[in-house]
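Dear Dr. H.,

I hope your travels went smoothly. While you were away I took the liberty of generating a structure for the chain from your last submission, since the lab meeting agenda had it listed for discussion. I wanted you to have the full record in hand beforehand rather than looking at slides cold. The sequence, exactly as received, is reproduced here:
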Amino acid sequence: MSFDYDRFLVDQLVRPVANLYRVTPLAVGETPAGSPVAFVRQKKLAIKEDIRFYADEGQTEELFRVKARSLLDMGGSRYDILVGDEPIGVIRHKFRESLYRSTWHIGGPDEQEIGLARESSTAVGILRRLIDFVPYVGEFIPIPYNFEIVIDGEVVGGMKRRFAKVRDQYVLDLSGDRERRIDRRVGVALAVGLDTLQNR
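The corresponding predicted structure, in token form, is as follows:
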């Protein structure tokens, strides 16, 4: 199955009218475990977020999508992960906890919290916010944008940014979630969401 793996490379494809991503499973180290399992499209300047995940680059077969519940992107914004009309999970930006260290709720189909994704370093999170206050500077200063994924107080994985010349690249690692409590499709949706759904 496409999402039986625990580690994925998520890399951004540069396009003028949409944010596009390619998701590839990883074997040992940075070695691809096969062909890409998903291609992702997010329209720029969309009124309401609706991010589509496709099985092919031609976008003929939709796998799942991330859909915002409301037009207002305020504290506590929720995004459903759907296969057709059926929910498989939810991610929610936790506004209060994110003042210094970005934190996201990871939930299952019933919205019950399974885990959290939070910035690995509070100090780096604060530094990133300070740099973002200076116009245009944040785009040219490479700041690590890394998250740890926590279940029941234990770090089971994370997402690390790889610095590339033109595009963003991230490695999602859920290998510590041995019981696979986090649906890997929800994990991949979260990884894309951490790059697209909040002001970095």
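Two observations you may find useful: The chain has two helices and twelve strands. The helical segments are 122-132, 184-196.

With kind regards,
E. W.
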